[in-house]
Amino acid sequence: MTQYAKSPLMGQMMDQPLLISTIIKHADRYYGSNEIVSRRVEGDIHRYTYRECHTRSRRMANALAKLGVKIGDRVATLAWNGYRHLELYYAISGSGAVMHTINPRLHPDQIAYIANHAEDLYLFFDMTFLPLVEAFHSKCATVKGYVMMCDRERMPAETKIPNLMCYEDLIEANSDDFEWPVFDENSASSLCYTSGTTGNPKGALYSHRSTVLHSYASAMPDALNVSSRDTVLPVVPMFHVNAWGLPYSVPLTGAKLVFPGPALDGKSVYELFESEQVTFSAGVPTVWLGLLTHVSQNNLKFSSFKRTVIGGSACPPAMMKTFRHQYGVEVVHAWGMTEMSPLGTACTLQKSHLDLPEDEKQAILEKQGHAIFGVDMKIVDDAGEELPWDGKTYGNLLVRGPWVISKYFKGEGGDVLENGWFPTGDVAVISPDGYMQITDRSKDVIKSGGEWIGSIDLENIAMAHPAVQQAACIGVFHPKWDERPLLVVVKKPGVEVGKEELIHFYDGKIAKWWTPDDVVFVDALPIGATGKVLKNCIRDQYKEYKLPTA
Ligand code: AMP
């Protein structure tokens, strides 16, 4: 850790470490009767309060201590968004151990790789993942025992999983007489592996300090804007960058929490929104696509839904307009990454924007937005030289801040920082007033005749066409230009559109030479473990594609 200069006159404030356990203590003390509602894997709806969550977290902390879990040990989970998962967030990290959330959508071999790399000591899993755990447990060398997150009646009569325990038995057998330990705020609190589209996944190891600071900053009005008057439904999974920090920032504010469990289809999410009167939610665009399709096909409206954060990949402007104009739901476009805990920017309007014409407001809101306080960003060229914030020049986006990683777990990938900045792998422009817009992931940029074409712009235009459900744009080989854009499109059900019409749809909307050379229609796009379109798979699929212009 960097040593900073010491002033001869130090401040005289209490030295209290920022610890995750203080969040659940606060929620219990001041919002103890506020609800946490979960759609369980068992199929029913479970309700209890922050106070009960805190009590059960302390019981689980006692259980972990009896199992021999010590400060710094890693304990893994394979679980959906639900109350038991939340209890583990606090029981594990609050005891000083490291909460390691594993993405169950990964291949079993990748899960085993991650569990071995992390040297997980125990693994907790939702009932639905029993077959998955049976498939990979024999490859996990360090795991001493497994805990199925259910009650005794639902435990399997027979299993090959060694030392399989029952979650509710552990809760019942332990008292809630537990004092959260106090330790250095820089201690590791949780571990999350990157999606690893190339090579093995790498671990981002968060600390108590980074998590508490991220929670403060992300709850602010021009970020997620969560308050005790909200009802928050995190659609983003608790195994994807800690559900963007919501399991910490929501209890910190005392808002009611609603967990959707495994039912993430449009109908189930909509029903929960309505029955629990959800005001605020967060998720990747693919989930909202399912929700909006359900709502529009059934002529429904939202009776309480006011605001949603969309991020993880670019929010198509057409989706934002539908939310805003058709349903009166405010959209906050946010950007971040696993390595940033994840929040880096959020896009909201400032006072000076409020009287602008609607299309100008919309143009601002489509950007990824301002850095939230704590995050510092800059754009640089390939030589590392800083580029101007003029809204036109695009460059590699670098960040730094107290919740940005300084290295990957166990030093994987070596020294990843560039002069103290973390290279995000994204390409962006920044306007003079500090609004950042991602033009592409550097690997996805289309390089045509020595110039760059941003694939996100091309996709956003296609998705504004009334017949297009989803679109991805990739560069394919061209003998003269190196690469030219190919548009891959999923049509909306029952609507027709042809290649020529889509290509003409770009007229006047972008520079002529950016227009895709060709369009292919497919039934579905490949979606990865975190709900994002897998561009690398599409590129592989169309590696040999011959463009009509080639
Ligand atoms: P992950 O670590 O899986 O959350 O992925 C982080 C990456 O997702 C970023 O580096 C971006 O490439 C992409 N991403 C996240 N949010 C956005 C956004 N709002 N717009 C465009 N790309 C995004």
Give structural notes.
- This protein is of the alpha/beta class.
- The protein has 3 domains: 227 residues, ANL, N-terminal domain (Rossmann fold), CATH 3.40.50; 161 residues, ANL, N-terminal domain (Rossmann fold), CATH 3.40.50.12780; 94 residues, GMP Synthetase, Chain A, domain 3.
- Helices cover 28% and strands 24% of the residues.
- The protein contains 16 helices and 25 strands.
- The strands form 5 sheets. The protein has a 9-stranded mixed beta sheet with strand order 2-1-11-10-12-13-14-15-16, sandwiched between helices. A 7-stranded mixed beta sheet has the order 7-6-5-3-4-8-9, with helices on both faces.
- β19 and β20 form a beta hairpin.
- α4 packs across α5 and α10 packs across α11.
- It is globular.
- The mean pLDDT is 96.
- The structure holds adenosine monophosphate.
- The site of adenosine monophosphate has 20 residues, from β14, β19 and β20.
Q: Which CATH architecture of the largest domain is right?
A: 3-Layer(aba) Sandwich
Considering the protein shown, what is the CATH homologous superfamily of the largest domain? ANL, N-terminal domain
Overall pLDDT confidence: 96
Sum up the overall morphology in one term.
Answer: globular
Structural class: alpha/beta
Q: How many strands, which pairing sense, and closed or not: the largest β-sheet?
A: 9 strands, mixed
Runs in which pLDDT lies below 50 for 5 or more consecutive residues are: none
Secondary structure: helix percent:
25-40%
Strand order of the largest sheet: 2-1-11-10-12-13-14-15-16
First CA to last CA: what distance? 54 Å
Tally of alpha and pi helices: 16
CATH class wording of the largest domain: Alpha Beta
Q: Would you report the number of β strands?
A: 25
The structural domain count equals 3
Q: How much strand content do the residues show?
A: 15-25%
Please compute the radius of gyration using only Cα atoms: 24 Å
